Amino acid sequence: MATHSSEAPMQNDHWVSQKPFDPQSIEAISPEQEKYYFASQWQLIWWRFKRHRLALICGIFLALMYLSILITEFLAPYALSTRHTDYIYSPPQPVHFIHEGEFVGPFVYGWNYELNMQKLLREYSEDKSQVYPLQFFCKGDPYKFWGLWEADRHLFCAPEGATLFLLGTDRLGRDLLSRITYGARISLTIGLIGISLSFFLGILIGGLAGYYGGWVDSSVQRITEVIRSFPELPLWMALSAILPVTWSPLWVFFGITLILALLDWTGLARAVRSKLLALREEDYCLAAQLMGAKPKRVIGRHLLPGLFSHLIASATLSIPAMILGETALSFLGLGLRPPITSWGVLLNEAQNINVVAIYPWLMFPVLPVIVIILAFNFFGDGLRDAADPYKH
Fold first, then answer.
1. Which residues on neighbouring strands pair with residue 103, listed in sequence order?
2. Which residue among 27, 177, 194, 237 is least packed, with the fewest CB closer than 10 Å?
3. Quick one: which H or E segment has residue 98?
4. How far apart are CA 62 and CA 83, in angstroms?
5. Residue of 215 and 335 predicted with greater confidence
């Protein structure tokens, strides 16, 4: 006998929204999406750059370094020309915090020396019976702030009767930390001034060659090839040797900057030229020309933004190259000369390997050069990636 199930067949319940139909709902965007879609190019670059942590840290470090050159006299514990004739070739003086089991804060012990007649050297040692706490925002060596007005305030200095040589002294008893601090003003500034001149020449000459082509391009290429055919360092040395010895230190500074800029524009000019040769055939460039835009506007408004990321990378690589160029020339005695103080001038005293072997702290000026070069490279990598429109 057939049996029938008493259970009713299952039915699927469907929920239907009672809200009125909005045909534009599929195109609606969230506030976060709206913020992104309506952001300017600079905002997008900044958001991408912030994700590059190492580049961001290096950028902050470089900003602090360049801000520090505005208050060099205040940051240096001693004036640039201050000599401690009783402490020539003093090694770095350590800073302590605890004395006989008690926290005293940053302080130095008394600094004495004895003549070692067998080695013909001064041997320095600490006198732990004398404790000198460091002073902050204190009065020290007088100086002319930016050469304009007299001042004597320093960030930190040793108390009266004590010495503070954190990086040692040179052959004249001058504090090496103070001289490195003063040298940063010249070494960092020469890169900025040089890159400004180099960029102006590279973008102008490369832009004209790439936009017009023809005989203009051929002439620029031949000039570029001739300049790049010379070995860089010997050419620097030859041009630096031409500078008159009677020039003032300020004119020598601008002369070295001009030499570095005149020899550095060729690489940027070639890059700008090759990029503009491709971009000038784009439709938006042709449209701008048909609307009557002048070549100056077409290049500056429509073409150069297309290679913005490459310009950033070139700048961040050219600045450290110029710093290295000045350092090399000054190290060889063909660049800046005393009384101008730069990192290269300071390294000039470390040419003798025997002196370096006995007084290794004379090589300390090379450390800021290495740190600055690495910071510029990491910073440039982050900026290049952030400004690249094809990377997200």
1. 98
2. 27
3. strand 96-99
4. 30
5. 215
